[in-house]
Amino acid sequence: MKWSQLQSASIKSIIGWASTQPWCAAMQECAQDAKWHSEGDVWTHTQMVMHELPQLESWSDLSSHDQTVLIFTALFHDVAKPLTTQVDPLTGNIISPKHAVKGEHLARTILRECGCDLTTREEIARMVRYHGRPVFLMHKSDPTREVVRHSWLVNNRLLYLFALADFRGRCAKKKTRSEEDLHFWKIASEEASCYERPYPFASDHARFLFFHQDKPNLHYVPHEDFSCRVTVMAGLPGSGKDRWLAIHRSELPVVSLDEIRGDLMIDPTDNQGKVIQRAREACREHLRAGTSFAYNATNTMHLTRGRWLDLFADYAAWIEIVYVEPPLDVLFRQNKSRETVVPEAIIRRLADRLEPPTWAEAHQLTLVDG
């Protein structure tokens, strides 16, 4: 079933489609701890949560887009439990550590294969990743910071509504939490003016510093004196990063890992130490001179991308990230026309692990879908 069909399908039809998929079969066979999920396996719980959504008091007030995001968050929120479920050797309890993080990646892969647009896909994937956060807010040392942070990653209202459906869509022998725990997320978000929209920082730089400082002050209005502007390209090989730069940032000098590899005659599968060293030196030259430039590499992993962003921030640069991801069939076609063709198997492996950038990482974020 293609995304154009799925997003207009009924919950019953979506459940019927999902039931034919191998990841759903795995959910059907995945047991849960009866103390928290006496209703049974993961798929039983998933269906219960999906059916709870239309029962929410505010369901009819939501846009069709928001309803779609919630339905597919419910469908995928526990999709990685079969990959992570184990028996705790100390307690004998069934646990599923990091299932939300792995679920984000799995949901992203499934939605990509269905043809879901980039923006909606990332909304759903991040909802899957953070779906369990509301219930624990009361235990956070700084609840306001928590809801402000998440408001730039997900929609706090949708996260709250999903948490309600998730709480109601189960049978628990042991009640250690209540819906009041979830209401605290709504109240804290409303008080911080970030329940239905991202928190309104004083400036893009204030937001940037909030996400990059240990103890940020929400009301701090930082002085802005940037040394230069750095455009950080991100995307799989063959996605069209060079073309985007040529059209939109043609005036900028470019530090390109592909070009450096060519100059040094180093294959992408070889040790990249010398390539990275040369690139860092080139970036530092521009930064020290206060020259705006573009840094062009795959940058698809948060940790790897973060090292470069930290370098640019150390030199007081204004940072924008441009993430380019066309449909895979388009990407593979473009890859074949590259001077250095990357094997399709490598691209698929990178696609399964990719972590698209968020507004928490830069002053400006642009997602290019196509």
From TrEMBL:
SUPFAM superfamilies: HD-domain/PDEase-like, P-loop containing nucleoside triphosphate hydrolases. InterPro entries: HD/PDEase_dom, HD_domain, P-loop_NTPase, tRNA_CCA-adding_enzyme. The keyword Hydrolase applies. CDD domains: HDc (cd00077). It holds the Pfam family HD. Residues 61-135 form the HD domain. Gene3D superfamilies: cca-adding enzyme, domain 2, P-loop containing nucleotide triphosphate hydrolases. The keyword Chaperone does not apply. GO terms for molecular function: hydrolase activity; nucleotide binding. Keywords: Hydrolase, Nucleotide-binding. This is Phosphohydrolase. It comes from Blastopirellula marina. The lineage of its organism: Bacteria, Pseudomonadati, Planctomycetota, Planctomycetia, Pirellulales.
